[in-house]
Amino acid sequence: MEWFNTWAADIASTFEKCFIRENRYKLLLNGIGVTIKVALLAVILGVLIGFIIALCNLSKSKLLRFFGGIYTDVIRGTPSVTQLMIIYFVIFATVNLDKWIIAAIAFSINSGAYVSEIFRAGILSIDKGQTEAGRSLGLSAYQTMTRIVLPQALKNIFPTLCNEFIVLIKETAIVGYVGLMDIQKAGDFIKSATFEAFMPLIATAIIYYVLIKLLTLALGRIEKKLRASDIR
Fold it and tell me: Distance (Å, rounded) from C-alpha 12 to C-alpha 103?
């Protein structure tokens, strides 16, 4: 048992050094707040951007389809970290905005390209006969889209959208490139300050896992309610 007591003492000492000493645990708590803020705003803006781009890609206008295609192609064809740095250091270099807001905008632009394809696939999955039926009942194109097509499409694409949200949270781990102290950056700071790698990295991984697990459970409950009205 002596080896176990020695091991336990070493773990406790390392834990105290990494998280208790100098209140370093607060760095992780603040990092959680930054990650949640960035991810939440990015999700909201990403859905809006994705829906607009999806409509562009489905439009009868060649110009709108060209714009949507270029946007989707460029964003999906370049790394998200490169996009983040271009938006922060070039596009918003002279704009007085909080770092986390700029980061959220960058991630929303990136996510919008993927969400647009999700929306496009969902809309196309709805039978054209339903659109025609809506128009024959006197509904406008907007009313047909919002009252008939979109509710069914959203139900079909909800699991895929959930997966995109989860991926987005993990992608925010690169915000440290623009000086934001998120969860990952906080773990890196603790690692550098204490010269201990194991404990900070494990703590970072656990925090991300718990956040994503809670989000997965919450989204799963929402999906279950959406499916409750389905007739099997």
Answer: 36
In words, the CATH class of domain 24-227 is mainly alpha
Residue 84 is given by DSSP the state H
d(CA 218, CA 162): 10
Burial class of 222 by CB neighbour count within 10 A (0 to 12, 13 to 18, 19+) = exposed
Distance CA 48, CA 154 (A): 13
Question: Looking at residue 9, what is its pLDDT?
Answer: 82
Q: For residue 230, name the pLDDT band (cuts at 50, 70, 90).
A: low
| Domain boundaries defined on the chain | 24-227
What is the value of pTM for the model shown? 0.89
- Determine the residue type at 88: Y
AA letter at 180: L
Q: Percent of the chain at pLDDT above 70?
A: 98
Task: Determine the average pLDDT of the residues in 127-141.
Answer: 77
Give the three-state DSSP class for 182: coil
CB 13 within 8 A of CB 78: no
- Tokens for 63, please give them: 């110009």
Pure H helices in 93-197: 99-124, 128-136, 141-144, 150-171, 183-194
State both tokens at 197.
């790698």
The DSSP secondary-structure symbol of 138 reads T
Say what the pLDDT of residue 84 is: 95
* Relative orientation angle of helices 2-15 and 198-227, to the nearest 10 degrees: 80
The predicted pLDDT at position 225 comes to: 81
